[in-house]
Amino acid sequence: MRILTIRTLHFTLLISALCGGKALAQTNTVTVAQDSRFEELLNDKRKISSSITVNDRYKVQIFYGDNDKARKALQDFKKDYKGQDGTIIFESPTYKVWVGSYKTRIEAEKNLTDIRKKFPHALLVKPNK
After folding, report:
1. Is residue 60 within 8 Å of residue 118, measured between CB atoms?
2. CA-CA 20 to 30 A from 15: which of 1, 40, 42, 78?
3. Residue 42: inside a domain, yes or no?
4. How is 59-124 classified by DSSP, letter by letter?
């Protein structure tokens, strides 16, 4: 009789644990509210990162020097050439401003002549080669 009571007790505890766990489960959903500027920054980062890592693209270097002047040069470039990308690359101890992403050398040289009107010391580079 005593063994039967222990088995019944264990069975009852097991059933109540299984049923009780489902009764106390949470069913709420989570919604994340984020600033729309975050998504814009993330897209810009993706665009910049992909343009830097592509080895077979030509770029135009418009500046080589310290950080403040590099930022100013990039800002001036973006005012005049709204359709082209630009980025600042740090190579110790100087900063470079690279603009554009051209598949062919001919395309890059055409844009280089136009860019040299505003930035006379601009030169053509092919990163990682």
Report:
1. no
2. 1
3. no
4. EEEEEEE-HHHHHHHHHHHHHH-TTS-EEEEEETTEEEEEEEEESSHHHHHHHHHHHTTT-TT-EE
Map tokens 């990682």 to a residue.
128
CATH code at position 86: 3.30.70.1070
Over the stretch 65-116, which tens digit does the pLDDT of each residue have? 999 999 999 999 999 888 888 889 888 889 999 998 888 899 999 999 999 9
Q: Which of 61, 48, 59 is nearest to 108 (CA)?
A: 59
Angle ∠(43,62,51) on CA atoms, nearest 5: 30
Q: Is 27 contained in some domain?
A: no
Q: Which amino acid is at 80?
A: D
What is d(CA 18, CA 117) in angstroms, rounded to the nearest whole number? Answer: 77
The pair of structure tokens assigned to 123 is: 């030169």
Q: Read off the amino acid at residue 118.
A: K
